[in-house]
Amino acid sequence: MNQEGKKEFRSGFVAVIGRPNAGKSTLLNTLLGQKVLIISDKPQTTRNRIQCILTEERGQVIFFDTPGIHKPQHRLGEYMVTAAKSTLRGVDFVVYVVDASVPLGSGDEYVMEIIKESGIPCILALNKIDLLTKDEILIKIAEFSKLIDYKEIIPISAIQAENTAKLLDLIFDALPPGPMYYPEDEVTDQPEKFVVAEMIREKLLHLTREEVPHSLAVIVERMQEKKSLIKIGAVILVERESQKGIVIGKNGNVLKEVGRLAREEIEELLGSKVFLELWVKVRKDWRNQQAHLKEFGYNFDDLRE
Q1: 237 and 155, same domain (yes or no)
Q2: For a Cys-Cys bond, which of 41, 72, 193, 279 suits 220, CB 3.0-4.6 Å?
């Protein structure tokens, strides 16, 4: 506390890491109290390091949502894992999110090895406890506590906001006294075009079949404001002609529904009427093409800064 008896303002940087589909983005949306990150039941939904900012009277937390750490199958996968690992540079501590409803495996051991090597203090968040019994939760805590000396272990349900307030208290307690790095009304450092593209991609993830989601990319090519209307043009990229047909759907039904759902959410985000145009194009094997990855914002050079 300071001389006036008030608690000192705390601030710092926190990396949120884990395996694909552990619930990292869902947890951050819950902690932030609003939807900032796209979510789906498809693994590897998050592809970039995404900075999210939570500001309260007691302090400011700058979270980094990261791609799930997995064994890469292509250049995009390599970028995603590199992005997750590089986020550990310069953060105050780590929140490791685990899907407690699945058995501990080699993937978890790999993530824990990365955490150990970093030497950064870590809080373990055992997520999806709504799917477990109390005895199963205690077994999980005992299992993980043997592997790393965690600062804290806390069972949570991100989707039901169970124990998430307690997790946030632990995060603030672990932060050092510091300044406000960002304006208090700022919740992400991502430009509007990126956020809009992610909203479109989220709808595609929900509406397309299993073989398509990882092959999708969305590029917002233009955003023009005219009076009370914002015109947005976006390109959906796939790797094969067959995938193009799936994204468009019979009589264009899938693409129309993607456009409707995305437009409603974008209008809420921007506070304006939106006219959204979507095109589907084929870029063969774009996930392995360095030039395409860089064009779409997956730039390895940015991770080396």
Answers
A1: no
A2: 193
**What's the pTM value of the predicted model, to 2 decimals?**
0.72
Q: Over pLDDT 90: what percentage of the chain?
A: 41
Q: Are 40 and 205 in contact (CB under 8 A)?
A: yes
Our measurement of the distance from residue 216's CA atom to the centroid of its chain's CA atoms, rounded to an integer in Å, reads: 16
The tens digit of pLDDT for each residue in 188-210 reads 877 788 888 888 988 888 888 66
Which amino acid appears at position 298 of this protein?
Answer: Y
Q: Strands 50-56, 59-65: parallel, antiparallel or unpaired by DSSP? A: antiparallel
Is there a domain that residue 292 lies in?
Answer: yes
Domain boundary among 146, 174, 202: 174
How do residues 121-138 score in pLDDT, each as one tens digit? 999 999 999 999 999 999
Sheet holding 273-282, edge to edge: 217-226, 229-238, 273-282
Assess whether 211 and 132 both reside in one domain. no
Residue with tokens 């799917």: 131
Domain that holds residue 232: 192-303
Euclidean distance between CA atoms 81 and 63, whole angstroms? 17
| Structural contact between residues 39 and 202, judged by C-beta atoms closer than 8 angstroms | yes
Q: Residue 170 sits in a domain of what CATH number?
A: 3.40.50.300
- Asked if residues 120 and 93 have their Cβ atoms less than 8 Å apart, the reply is yes
The DSSP 8-state label assigned to residue 302 in this structure reads: H
Please list, in sequence order, all residues whose beta carbon lies within 8 angstroms of the beta carbon of residue 201, skipping any fewer than 6 positions away.
38, 216, 217, 218
Q: How many structural domains compose the chain?
A: 2
Q: Give the side-chain half-sphere CA count within 13 A for 164.
A: 21
